[in-house]
Design goal:
Blueprint lengths: L1 E4 L1 H12 L13 E6 L5 E6 L3 E7 L3 E3 L1 E6 H10 L5 E6 L2 E6 L2 E6 L15 E6 H12 L13 E7 L2 E7 L3 E8 L1 E2 L5 E7 H12 L4 E6 L9 E6 L2 E6 L18 E6 H12 L8 E6 L2 E6 L7 E6 L1 E4 L2 E5 L1 H10 L4 E6 L6 E5 L11 E5 L7
Length: about 375
């Protein structure tokens, strides 16, 4: 087996494939990356750990058919460091030789026969623009939980009804919901899937850079989507096993009536929150007092360091004092695709909703909503 290919093309493909490799594989062979030159001359790089698979197809300048398995992370480090010249990859017995300019690396190969076969892609369910897909997933993924003892909170729930896809995630302290349109293969499609949050975020970010449409494939497009989901775009494909579809009934948590509304300039408000938060101890809140045309931000109390900042805001409704975890607040503001954020509140102890400040026509709801639970203030 051998091939020659542009260094930048190879390095990018190896880096993308290596992202799916486990840091601590259960068996050594799962740390490998499979490289295959097909009879038709295509180069395929793939990785699989029984949960997540990744494969990218390239067109090398030259190639001879064959298959080899080498350390994926080592190959990624090597290709990233190579000079900007064509790369020659040749298998010589039990070793693979990588040559680029005056640089030469020799890698030990691993037993290909011990490597698991990649899963086949499930049936195609529909397509969506890569930029829309990447943006929507990033907006929702910020609210996924990090506690692996509660698997359903580490995932993103995907609900498909016709041409509408709804993404939702929560860690019990905030909830992010995003709706988007897509092009389904079947106009009456109805499906639910629970996707590991980190896997989905990584896939969306990588496929979002292709500039092409993303095809979404599901193992059960007419039911709960139990089993597997796949994403492919521009010669790249990834699959992942799904989590149990159990998820909180989140729609009932989203308030529809509010007693106060503040429109905040995102840039200056984020900077103010960051400044005030400098004196906030871990898990202590940022306090905000909305009244008139301003908001007073405060952190710290008593003998501790304190910070106060006042910002003008477009405010309507009853005066309100409310407090939030500043990191959760900043992550919500960072996910909003707008220069102005709208914060809608009811009382100091009930959930608030953060959305973009763009007006919504015909009494509809914004396509992105970020619910954040306030922290109760001591009286």
């Amino acid at each position: 087996m051998m091939f020659r290919i542009d260094r930048d093309v190879l390095a990018e493909a190896v880096a993308w494939t290596a992202r799916s490799l486990p840091a601590r594989p259960s068996v050594p062979v799962l740390a490998g990356m499979r490289l295959e030159v097909t009879e038709s001359g295509q180069l395929k790089l793939s990785g699989f750990d029984y949960e997540v698979s990744a494969e990218v197809t390239l067109e090398p300048q030259t190639g001879e058919a064959g298959v080899v398995l080498v350390s994926g992370r080592l190959l990624a480090e090597i290709t990233r460091a190579l000079p900007a010249q064509p790369v020659d990859f040749v298998v010589e017995g039990a070793k693979a030789v990588v040559t680029c300019g005056s640089a030469r690396f020799t890698l030990l190969t691993m037993p290909v026969e011990d490597y698991p076969s990649l899963p086949t892609m499930p049936p195609a369910a529909g397509r969506v623009g890569s930029d829309v897909f990447a943006s929507a997933v990033s907006q929702v993924a910020v609210a996924t939980g990090k506690d692996d003892t509660l698997p359903m909170l580490t995932g993103v729930r995907v609900e498909i009804e016709g041409d509408t896809v709804t993404l939702a995630a929560t860690d019990r302290y905030r909830l992010a919901v995003r709706e988007l349109k897509w092009q389904p293969e079947q106009s009456d499609i109805s499906a639910i899937a629970m996707i590991p949050g980190k896997t989905l975020a990584d896939a969306a970010k990588a496929l979002g850079a292709t500039g092409a449409e993303v095809e979404i494939a599901m193992s059960s497009v007419g039911g709960t989507g139990e089993g597997m989901i796949g994403f492919s775009s521009a010669g790249r494909r990834t699959t992942t096993r799904l989590l149990d579809p159990e998820f909180p009934k989140y729609r009932s948590l989203l308030p529809t009536e509010f007693s106060a509304r503040a429109d905040l300039p995102v840039g200056s408000f984020v900077e103010a929150v960051k400044r005030v938060a400098l004196v906030a101890e871990r898990n202590t809140p940022i306090r905000m007092a909305f009244r008139g045309g301003e908001v007073v931000l405060e952190a710290g109390s008593g003998d501790e360091a304190q910070a106060v900042e006042v910002l003008p805001v477009d405010f309507e409704g009853d005066d309100i004092n409310i407090a939030f975890n500043h990191q959760f607040l900043l992550e919500g503001l960072g996910a909003i695709d707008s220069d102005v954020a709208r914060l809608q509140m009811t009382t100091s102890t009930k959930p608030a909703i953060l959305t973009g400040g763009k007006p919504v026509e015909d009494g509809g709801v914004p396509d992105y909503r970020y619910l954040i639970m306030p922290i109760r203030l001591s009286s």
